[in-house]
Amino acid sequence: MINLYISNFFYRIYKILVLLGFKATNNILLSVRYKFKKYDENVIYFFHMHRSAGTSLNYFFLKINKTNKYKIIRFGHSIKPRNVNFSNKNKYIFNVRNPLDLLCSAFNQDKKKEINRISKYNIKFLSLNFLAENLSSNNYEMKRTAIKALGSLKSFNYRLSNFVNINYLIKKPPFHIFNYKDLNSDYQDFCKKISYKKKTKIRVVFKSLKTNNSNKIKLSKLAIKNLKKYLANDIKIFNYIIKNKKKINSL
Are 63 and 191 within 8 A, CB to CB? Predict the structure, then answer.
């Protein structure tokens, strides 16, 4: 009862701060909202990464919740492991996607608005490709503007390094990882791990997600090279996750 009171108290504070003009996705506000809320130890936290088939996973998690001893709770795109309460030693899971493919997919999802964002910096920025090519421009002003424009993209802010870092993963390993390209096999392994015996082949719900090859959205070699440079930390984290996924998922 006390825990419920504390949780409701901080939730009210969160709502007041949002009404006062603070962003609902601010890290401090998210911690105010979720850090004091406890869940039973059989609850698994699912951190839903953007444009990485999380909606598909959650659809099947809801089915699992009906009969399994574990109950899976989904946290939205902005919520990170450091924002929530692990005092009951809750397990956590998340989905991932190659950082470059993720950026391209997120950009395409809201292409018109994203182009409007970057064209405010330079009227010539009418595509992600042109913007990315100018990240290494010999023209200092053009390069500086391109870097600022890249940072303004909503899709750029969904990157993996904003979610977690390698040190956190080492200190607090996830219970299971779902890679976009291995979605079905990772899901089947997860079902075995939690003793969920109903065999179901998972599928991607949104067809628009299936742009997993960056070349399909017309990125030049220079654009890809530049974006990989600016996504270097994300790629490092992603490679660490993929390298250790088999070990983590088999535990």
Answer: no
Q: Is the full-model pTM beyond 0.85? A: yes
Q: What b/e string do you get for 236-245 counting C-beta neighbours within 10 Å, with b at 16 or more?
A: ebbeebeebb
Domain housing 26: 1-37
Alpha-carbon separation of residue 97 from 50, 177, 178, 210 (angstroms): 9, 11, 9, 12
Within 10 angstroms of residue 169's Cβ, the number of other Cβ atoms is 17
Specify if 9 maps to a domain.
yes
**How many domains in the chain?**
1
pLDDT tens digits along 82-108: 999 998 999 999 999 999 999 998 898
Phi, psi of 43 (to 5 degrees): -85, 125
C-alpha distance from residue 126 to each of 74, 113, 131, 216, 220 (Å)? 35, 11, 8, 17, 15
Question: CA 25 → CA 17, 111, 180, 234, distances in Å?
Answer: 11, 22, 25, 20
4, part of any domain: yes
Enter the tokens of residue 115. Answer: 């182009």
